[in-house]
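Lay summary

Proteins are chains of building blocks that fold into shapes. Our project writes down both the chain and a compact code for its shape. Here are two examples, one after the other.
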Amino acid sequence: MNASFAVRTDVGSTRTVTADFAVTETPLGPFATLVDPDGAVLASGWTSDAENLRGLIHPALRPGRLRQRDSLGEVTGAVTAYHEGDLTAIDPIPVRQQSGEFLVHAWEVLRAVPAGSPLTYTEFAARAGRPDATRAAANACARNAAALFVPCHRILRIGGALGGFRWGLPVKRWLLDHEG
């Protein structure tokens, strides 16, 4: 997996970079992706509101400006391919998120959960190295800004209940069925 996560030590700095974004039509509606100048996904989700996504990015990584593009090349191609059935198309796309050590590690663990093999929050916590930290594992899902590329939709409650999902439970159900 070619995942990239940034852990910045200069958190006090402000970034004035411009992030590019594109909106891709999917069976679930519009899907916006924001990428940094290196092409790493900063934020994504089933919306056309790039400004809302910008607000999900950690302040140390948050771009000062957004620039709309028709396509983000390989990133847009992966979004389309995933929704058309290539469930591994998203795997090699680099992602850049920042937070504390556990959250960054938990997001890396999420990227390793294969399509069609959802975990419970308890199983996810154990894989992340903190078996008693189910709430912290759920928090990692809730704070994930890069939906789809960091597949928090693959985490379920015990017994298979969907739990929460920023983009709505119908979207989560569709994704799980699509991958099943």
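And here is the second example, written the same way.
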Amino acid sequence: MKLRIYEIADTEEIMKLFYDTVHEVNIHDYTQEQVDAWASANMDIDVWIKSLKSKFTYVAEQGKIIGFGELEANGHIDRFYCHKDFQRKGIGKKILEQLELKAKSLEIEKLFVEASITAKPFFESQSFIVVKQQQVERRGKKLINFIMEKSI
């Protein structure tokens, strides 16, 4: 597995990975209506490019993109997804290690994330603690997630 910085040419593959992961992995913890609202079939590539470029985005690849994670300058981990066929294989841990290294280089002392029900056990295993459970709205549907943080 190779870990590298995001390139614009990765965008469509990242969007597909995001969509597939939400619809095939997160569906175990959310309803069909919720995952449809979370990961719409009609995503705007230009919006994704702008968003991915605006953060410290790292991509894991092994013949294809198998995961990605985004770090913002304030320590927020935004999107963080592993390919549906590469769950529980250490990919997320490697991406998170890279995000932590970047955060330390930026003198960020605390990371925080809004983890899905599905992702919560992963982040707990990486020493994140739950600050609070919350309900967010995506395209008119309410979803539960967890604000979690970790001092680094």
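What can we say about the second shape? Residues 82 and 138 are 21 Å apart (CA to CA).
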